[in-house]
Each structure stands twice: as C-alpha cells, then as structure tokens.
Amino acid sequence: MSNSSSMPQFLLLAFADRRELQLLHFWLFLAISLAALLANGLILSAVACDHHLHTPMGFFLLNLSLTDLGCICTTVPKAMHNSLWDTTAISYTGCAAQVFFFFFFLGAEFSLLTIMCYDRYVAICKPLHYGTLLGSRACAHMAAAAWAAGFLYSLLHTANTFSLPLCQDNALGQFFCELPHILKLSCSHSGYLREIGLIVVSVCLGFGCFIFIVFSYVQIFRAVLRIPFQQGQHKAFSTCLPHLAVVSLFASTGIFAHLKPPSIFSPSLNLIVSVLYSVVPPSLNPLIYSLRNQELKDALRKMMTGCFSGAIKCLFSGA
C-alpha cells in the first residue's frame, strides 16, 4: 500500500490526444486568461483610482476581482503548461497548493458575494442606516472575515485530504486537482468519512448563505416594486441585477458540476462542466458588472481615455 508521502505526482486529464487539439486548447486558455486578467485588472485600477467608486460596493467589487484573478491563476496556467508541453503530470506539492488556493479563493468569493448581497439589501431596504451599517471600518471587517473564512475553509479541506493515505492509481481524471477526484484515491475509510463530514458542513454553510441571498432579494424586489417612479426602479434594478447574475452563474455551474446525475457522466462532459464552473465565472464576472454599472463604465471610459491621451502625447513628444 502506498501512501501520500510515497506518491511523487498525480496525472491530470488531458484535453485531447491529438497534438493539434492540445495546442488549440492552449491558445484558447491563453485568450481566456488574458481577457480575465485584463478585465479584472481594469476593474481594480478603476476602483482604486476613481473616487466615485470609493464606496462599499466598489470596495467589495475590488475584493471580488482579486478572488476572480486568484481562481484563474490557480487552475489555468498548469493546464496551459500541460497542453503546450504534451504532459499530464503535476507534483504532489503542486497539487496540494492548487487545492489550497482554489478552495481559498472560491470560499472567499462566495463569502464576498453574500456580503455584497447584504450591501444591496441595506442600500435599498434600509437606506437611512446605510452609512452606519456599512461604514469603512465595517466594510474592512466584513472583507477580512470573507478572506479568513476562505482561508479556514481551504486549510481544513487541504490538511485533511492530503493527510489521507493514497493507495489507488494516481490518475485524477480532471484537468486540475479537484477534491472529489483525490478522495477517490484514498484507502483510509475513517479519513474519507472525516472529509465527507467537512464537505457536508461546508455545503450546509453554503446553503445557509444561499438562503440568505434568496431571502434578501425577495425583500429587495418587494422594496423596489414599491418605488413610485419608474426611473428609480430602473436604477435600483441596475445595481442589483449584476450581482444576482454573478451569484446565479457561480451557483448554477458549481451545483451542476457536483450534483449532475451519474447517468450522464463521461470524461469529456466532466471536463467541460469543470471548465464552466472553475474558469468561466471568473472570466465573465467583470463583463457582467461593467455592463450594468454606469459609474464603473464611466470610470473605465475615463481611465482608458486618459491612458490613450497620455500615449498620444508621449508618442508626439518623442517624435
């Protein structure tokens, strides 16, 4: 029986057997990662530089962009490396680091989405108390709690999973180190049950946050529909719909990835679904927020116009 200490590496699932398709996947992932880096980088720069976005929602959006960047940088670079160099290997330490950081950013992101829902609830349902309930200190404490929750969540799962003895084949059947696939390699019944218990507790906590989000949006929509002016309703909806779209994308892809019926399981479908929940949401979140947030669009437009004007001045002054 081999344990975790004697297993030097894991084998990830290749996207394709043909070299041409492997290179195609490399360029596709490169385009996705560059687009995500650019979009999230623009949001980070806009929120940091424009004083109109120095609000609780802007602060939480900045933190959300950091988690999106973290999720992309945790899984995509290794997949690109494997496709480019025609390999499937990942070291034991690299796999543990990938699991830790993926769970860390994923846990922090869901916590931040819950907090952002609370922000919208207070802004629309209790506007007179907004400055009191969401002051700068309160926002900093809530953001710190979200990152701490992600860290604790990740630490517990990673420490427990990689302390289990592994006695099966080292092929994971996934393009990144995903926890359920690692657990299938374990030969420790008690450790496996302990990790399942942690997962059940995590699911219960996540479901509680989801119920809080649903309840909050019920109250928000009731309050919005009571606004007498259509323009006021449109403004309120425009501030809520991006967050609701991001939550729906995050929840639907994650739930389908882990609760899909076994009858439709196949390696190729499993690969596609994993890309949907691990790569697509962090890439689309900046686009969703920028499409409906007029202040963010104005800040991005002003920043890009300033950069373009500066580049033109430098070009002509150099000439």
What distinguishing features does this structure have?
319 residues, mainly alpha, 2% strand, disordered N terminus
Give an overview in words:
The longest helix is centred in the middle third of the chain and has 37 residues, at 189-225. It contains eleven helices and two strands; from the N terminus they run βααβααααααααα. The radius of gyration is 22 Å and the shape is globular. It has a two-stranded antiparallel sheet. α1 (19-49) runs antiparallel to α2, α3 runs antiparallel to α5 and α5 packs antiparallel against α7 (189-225). The chain has helices spanning 19-49, 56-85, 92-125, 130-133, 136-161, 179-183, 189-225, 230-259, 267-278, 280-292, 294-318, and strands at 9-11, 89-91. With 319 residues, it is an all-alpha fold.
Summarize, please.
This protein has 319 residues and is mainly alpha-helical. The protein is built from eleven helices and two strands, in the order βααβααααααααα.
Integer-rounded radius of gyration: 22 Å
Helix content: over 70%
What summary fits the major beta sheet?
A: 2 strands, antiparallel
Run of helices and strands: EHHEHHHHHHHHH
Please give the order of strands in the largest beta sheet: 1-2
Tell me the β content. Answer: under 5%
Q: Total helix count?
A: 11
- End-to-end Cα distance, whole Å, is 71 Å
Low-confidence stretches: 1-5
Overall geometry:
globular
Class per helix and strand makeup: mainly alpha
Number of strands: 2
Mean pLDDT: 79
